Amino acid sequence: MHGRFGMAGAAGSLCVALGVLAVGCGGSTETRTVSVTSPTPTTTTTTATVTAVRVTGPSEITTAGGTAQFTATVTLSTGATEDRTSSAQWSSENSAAATISNGGMVTAVADGSTNIVASFGAVRGSTGLMIRLPKRTADPPAGQRLPLPDVRAFIQQKNAERPELMAQSCPGGVKYRNNPWLDYIVDELRKVDTRWGYNAKPTRGPSDNGGLPVIAAGDEIAYHYGPGPDQGSPDVHLVDILAGHCGTPSLTWRVFTGEEPGIWTGVGRF
Question: Contact, 245 vs 175, CB < 8 A?
Fold first, then answer.
């Protein structure tokens, strides 16, 4: 913008002229013209850069060929955070244990550990992942049975890791059904050997269970010692692992194989 400022002095007065307009203030007039140029505004654009990457996902996969989605959340130089899962450069540091797709989907391959990495140029983040695939003891020779594994110490360890679950071992006072505590113990046992399961408790009926169908003993585990499918097999070792069930529960280990009939069940969970 260009303008002219006219300054006229007359009897102590000041006159201003803008453009080509002169303003008289009486008496003699003195006009001075000054040109002024306004600076052109400058716009600066700053591109936010990635300063940190946080990778999240499960810490463990326990099924062969099992998949899990991982996500990449970035922190930008502006302080904002964004989900950049789809644009990350993904990699698995041990592809023999697990592989990962461009979108962050992991597939378990074999037992082992790896780090799942998301990169944005030189900035990267990672998280650990364990692959623990279920094991299974081979069938016994014809006419023989597998011995009962002594897993007392294992159960004690797992119970100590989740002590709050024991209070949920008799939900609603219903004894003959699976429960959060027993589900947890059986799941952990099955990571060692998939022959572990529940006892369907064929010697009990609704009259023993508050009128409800019997699903499984809520305080017992079963180990299939014979050949063939697990589900429905009567070839089971039976162990009571919870004393004072539906009362004041505590761990125990009482083997009662052969004392009463038992049937292996996965209660629809596996």
Answer: yes
Please indicate, yes or no, whether residues 196 and 218 belong to a single structural domain of this protein. Answer: yes
Residues of the chain with pLDDT > 90, as a percent, come to 80
Question: 40-64: per-residue pLDDT in tens?
Answer: 666 656 689 999 999 999 999 988 8
In whole angstroms, give the CA distance from residue 33 to residue 15. 12
**185 shares its domain with 216:** yes
Among 32, 40, 114, 123, which residue's Cα sits nearest to residue 74? 123
Residue 192 host element (H or E): helix 180-192
Q: Virtual CA dihedral for 73, 76, 82, 85, nearest 10 degrees?
A: -50
Q: Among 98, 131, 164, where does a domain finish?
A: 131
Does residue 177 sit in the same domain as residue 246? yes
Whole-angstrom Cα distance, residue 35 to residue 192?
90
Q: The whole model's pTM is what? A: 0.63
Q: Quick one: 25 and 54 in the same domain?
A: no
Give the range of the structural domain holding residue 83, as residue numbers without chain letter.
50-131
Q: What is the per-residue pLDDT across 83-102, written as a single tens digit (0 to 9) for each? A: 999 999 999 999 999 999 99
Sort 164 into a burial class: Cβ within 10 Å, 0-12 / 13-18 / 19+. exposed
